[in-house]
């Protein structure tokens, strides 16, 4: 179905789709119309590219692409995106759009990085390597966001302690405003959670094809899911339970400790990132 140039376009489409879902996530949390509008136009670009791919494939094969599982999967994702655009444009039901596109992204990732659709074994192997690279890159970006958020929470607690003890001085000024420290710490986690989710989806897709013997009870898999759950709960208690201040900072610090455990301890015990090339 695809040659190498088309593969690159499909990979770019997956990245654009991930950015769109990320912005819909921001809108889902804070009713941010700018994020919603930008996400809509990114999704429109994804739909436009998918439509071109669909017609090119139809022209190449001379039939409608629904006769195999992977053809049907691609068309299914195209239908989901089309409906999402219509709902976003005419019904303004943003929550449905967000959750529909989370599902759509997972299905697109499964389709794009499935080697069964490639006749060339070399191309399929190359795609697997690229999938692993994207997975690792997304995971590291998420870890970076969580690390900066952790640092800001530490600074928040130091600043809070200085204010409580009335320790005025240059150090107090240089640490920054409490509200800004908390807000930026939260925003970094809002960015990190969907990126981590995307990375896990792609990592699971890679593992299913390269490491079929890998267990869901692998320490790395469990640790990553626990980490995602902890940061998701952090966002939940911040948005829905209106938890702020030191309590939220301590939660963030505890979540980051799980990041460290997952990265250093579970990574050494897991078979997920140790494979034969």
Structural class: mainly alpha
Largest sheet properties? none
Question: What oligomeric assembly is this protein in?
Answer: single chain
Spans of at least 5 consecutive residues with low confidence: none
N-to-C span: 26 Å
Morphology = globular
Taking all residues together, what is the mean pLDDT? Answer: 79
- What is the rounded Rg? 21 Å
Measured by DSSP, the beta-strand proportion falls in under 5%
Helix content: over 70%
Output the helix-strand order.
HHHHHHHHH
Count the E strands.
0
Number of helical elements: 9
Question: Could you explain how this protein is built, in words?
Answer:
With 277 residues, the chain is mostly helical. It is built from 9 helices and no strands. It has helices at 4-30, 33-61, 69-91, 94-112, 121-164, 170-175, 178-210, 219-239, 245-269. The mean pLDDT is 79.
Question: What's the SSE blueprint?
Answer:
Blueprint: H1 4-30, H2 33-61, H3 69-91, H4 94-112, H5 121-164, H6 170-175, H7 178-210, H8 219-239, H9 245-269
Helix pairs in contact: 1-2, 1-4, 1-7, 2-3, 3-4, 4-7, 5-7, 5-9, 7-8, 8-9
Task: Give the gist of this structure.
This protein is mainly α.
Task: Kindly list the characteristics that best describe this protein.
277 residues, mainly alpha, globular
């Amino acid at each position: 179905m695809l040659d190498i140039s088309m593969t690159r376009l499909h990979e770019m489409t997956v990245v654009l789709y991930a950015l769109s879902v990320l912005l819909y996530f921001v809108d889902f949390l804070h009713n941010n119309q700018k994020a919603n509008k930008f996400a809509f136009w990114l999704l429109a670009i994804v739909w436009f590219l998918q439509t071109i791919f669909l017609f090119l494939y139809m022209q190449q094969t001379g039939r409608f692409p629904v006769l195999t599982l992977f053809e049907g999967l691609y068309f299914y994702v195209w239908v989901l995106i089309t409906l999402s655009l219509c709902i976003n444009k005419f019904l303004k039901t943003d929550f449905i759009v967000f959750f529909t596109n989370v599902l759509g992204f997972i299905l697109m990732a499964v389709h794009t990085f499935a080697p069964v659709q490639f006749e060339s074994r070399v191309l399929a192997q190359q795609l697997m390597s690229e999938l692993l690279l994207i997975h690792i890159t997304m995971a590291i970006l998420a870890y970076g966001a969580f690390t900066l958020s952790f640092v800001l929470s530490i600074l928040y607690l130091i600043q809070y302690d200085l204010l409580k003890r009335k320790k005025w001085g240059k150090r107090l000024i240089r640490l920054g405003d409490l509200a800004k420290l908390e807000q930026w710490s939260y925003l970094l986690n809002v960015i990190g959670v969907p990126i981590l989710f995307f990375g896990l989806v792609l990592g699971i897709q890679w593992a299913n094809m390269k490491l079929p013997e890998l267990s869901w009870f692998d320490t790395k898999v469990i640790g990553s899911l626990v980490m995602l759950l902890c940061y998701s709960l952090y966002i939940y208690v911040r948005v829905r339970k209106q938890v702020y201040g030191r309590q939220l900072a301590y939660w963030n610090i505890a979540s980051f400790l799980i990041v460290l455990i997952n990265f250093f301890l579970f990574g050494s015990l897991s078979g997920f990132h140790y494979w034969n090339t």
